[in-house]
């Protein structure tokens, strides 16, 4: 019998992320099968015990297989089910008899297709209730936890490199949205704490996962992709509590007639009124985003930089055009350019050449070197008139020593409590430098718009933390 089976609430959701033992039902030896990829994930990296279940094989990748979950002598906390829909009720009944606590059902073909599928869903819900098994899915990708290495994602690792351990949790009704986010994170070496794709939300839903992640010490930011909300009141209540502990980003699709029809056939979700959802977002203190890129950009800034105390931004650049664009974006996103304090002027005048005009955005000019940046950064971060710093660097100019530039900015940021983001435009030359910044916890963006939007999220989160809800867009 599973040790934690009888618990409700966030503790029972814990079983999906931190099981001691897992059985993969429908494990296969055929490389193109979903059951093969999942089995391989567990073989390669799961930190607990796992059992491969397949009635026709003796072994998979040299690991013993079991003909059924009931033939496993040891306790099984979690099962991952990847057999065709019509077999799921029988398999789940066996899991119930075995005393399994939780099941991720990868299989599609339930209420999202209607008819027989809806009847099958009713059947498995009844079985799960009878045996107190928590269900994730059906029609989902399931769970990825970078600490326990539960990994039920059926995308081979050579196609989706797994993201490193980090502070962002991502929950997604859609598998594809989840994959896009994880691939991005892996590519940019942004750390993930936990991931769940929960498909049709037949039992464990967005509110259950949100409640669990709000209490999770490894998670600093929660990002969610939703197509519908199963129980509006429950979700709003939990979201309001969750935002008291950490930022919650939400991307909700199905806003239009066409989008809501697509959501219904994708995960069987009812999208509901977008206006009502928007009101819930505002009342609960979540931050709404509208695209994968926006979600990814904002999630990482919230994970690695502190909330801003106010909306006054210092901009330092070595490119005038970028400075002008940033100035526009700052205003578009409800922030203000900070004044350079009078008391800072004499030192800046003395240390900078006459062609550097002392105003914000502070354009250090095309011949700026690291030292000029260092003086400007220190002055901005020390200034009482500045709440955050947006640093632009055009990396192509000859005066910048790129590697020590990263060290210098990281050092300055580590000595300050103010948020700092970098805009580093350009192609090949910029990739490695952006990566170095990211690895050191400085969110770095290729365009002024993305950098300003992300900084604005820190300002917004700062104001939400001060219970100043709804005052900024
Ligand atoms: N116990 C254990 N294993 C069993 C059992 C059983 N009772 N019965 C059969 N099996 C084995 C089979 O023998 C087979 O193993 P084999 O490869 O050695 O023959 C394995 O389980 C799988 O069964 P198949 O009949 O071969 O099924 P298949 O792998 O073709 O399909 C699947 C199963 C993948 C679950 C399919 O039905 C399905 O649902 N596919 C879609 C999945 C999906 O897209 N999910 C949602 C994604 S996320 C989103 O965007 C919402």
Main attributes?
473 residues, binds acetyl coenzyme *A, seven-stranded mixed β-sheet, six-stranded mixed β-sheet, disordered N terminus, elongated, alpha/beta
Task: Describe the protein.
This protein is an alpha/beta fold and 473 residues long. The protein is 41% helix and 17% strand. The protein contains 16 helices and 19 strands. The strands form 3 sheets. It has a 7-stranded mixed beta sheet with strand order 3-4-2-1-5-6-7, with helices on both faces. A 6-stranded mixed beta sheet has the order 8-10-9-11-12-13, with helices on both faces. The termini are far apart.
Bound molecules: acetyl coenzyme *A
Work out the number of β strands.
19
SS strand fraction: 15-25%
- Strand count, sense and closure of the main sheet? 7 strands, mixed
The side-by-side strand order for the widest beta sheet comes to 3-4-2-1-5-6-7
Structural class: alpha/beta
Mean pLDDT equals 92
Shape: elongated
């Amino acid at each position: 019998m599973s040790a934690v089976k009888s618990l409700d609430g966030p503790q029972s959701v814990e079983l999906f992320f931190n099981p001691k033992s897992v059985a993969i039902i429908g494990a296969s030896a055929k490389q193109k099968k979903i059951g093969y990829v999942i089995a391989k994930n567990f073989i390669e990296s799961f930190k607990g015990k796992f059992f491969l279940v397949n009635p026709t094989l003796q072994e998979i990748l040299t690991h013993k297989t079991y003909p059924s979950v009931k033939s496993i002598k040891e306790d099984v906390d979690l099962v991952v089910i990847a057999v065709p829909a019509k077999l799921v009720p029988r398999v789940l009944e066996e899991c119930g008899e075995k005393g399994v606590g939780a099941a991720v059902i990868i299989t599609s073909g339930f209420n999202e297709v209607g008819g027989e599928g809806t009847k099958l869903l009713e059947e498995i819900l009844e079985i799960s209730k009878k045996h107190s098994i928590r269900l994730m899915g059906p029609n989902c990708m399931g769970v990825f936890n970078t600490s326990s290495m539960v990994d039920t994602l059926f995308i081979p690792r050579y196609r989706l490199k797994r993201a490193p351990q980090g502070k962002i949790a991502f929950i997604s009704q859609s598998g594809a949205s989840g994959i896009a986010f994880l691939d991005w994170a892996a590519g940019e070496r942004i750390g993930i704490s936990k991931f769940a794709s929960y498909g049709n939300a037949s039992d464990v839903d967005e509110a259950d996962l949100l409640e669990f992640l709000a209490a999770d010490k490894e998670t600093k930011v929660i990002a969610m992709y939703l197509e519908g909300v199963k129980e509006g009141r429950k979700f709003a209540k939990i979201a309001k509590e969750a935002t008291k502990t950490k930022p919650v980003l939400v991307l909700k699709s199905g806003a239009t007639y066409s989008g809501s029809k697509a959501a219904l056939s994708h995960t069987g979700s009812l999208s509901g009124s977008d206006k009502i959802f928007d009101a819930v977002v505002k009342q609960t203190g979540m931050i709404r985003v509208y695209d994968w890129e926006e979600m990814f950009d904002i999630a990482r800034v919230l994970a690695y930089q502190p909330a801003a105390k106010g909306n006054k931004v210092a901009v330092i650049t070595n490119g005038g055009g970028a400075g002008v664009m940033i100035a526009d974006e700052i205003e578009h996103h409800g922030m203000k350019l900070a004044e350079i304090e009078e008391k800072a002027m004499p030192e800046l005048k003395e240390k900078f050449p006459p062609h550097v005009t002392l105003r914000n955005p502070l354009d250090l000019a095309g011949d700026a070197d690291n030292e000029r940046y260092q003086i400007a950064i220190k002055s901005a971060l020390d200034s009482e008139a500045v709440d955050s710093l947006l640093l632009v660097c055009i990396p192509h100019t000859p005066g910048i020593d790129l590697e020590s530039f990263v060290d210098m900015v990281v050092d300055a940021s580590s000595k300050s409590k103010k948020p700092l983001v970098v805009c580093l435009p350009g192609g090949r030359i910029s990739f490695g430098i952006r990566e170095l910044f990211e690895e050191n916890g400085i969110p770095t963006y290729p365009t002024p718009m993305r950098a300003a939007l992300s900084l604005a999220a820190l300002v917004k989160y700062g104001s939400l933390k001060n219970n100043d809800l709804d005052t900024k867009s």
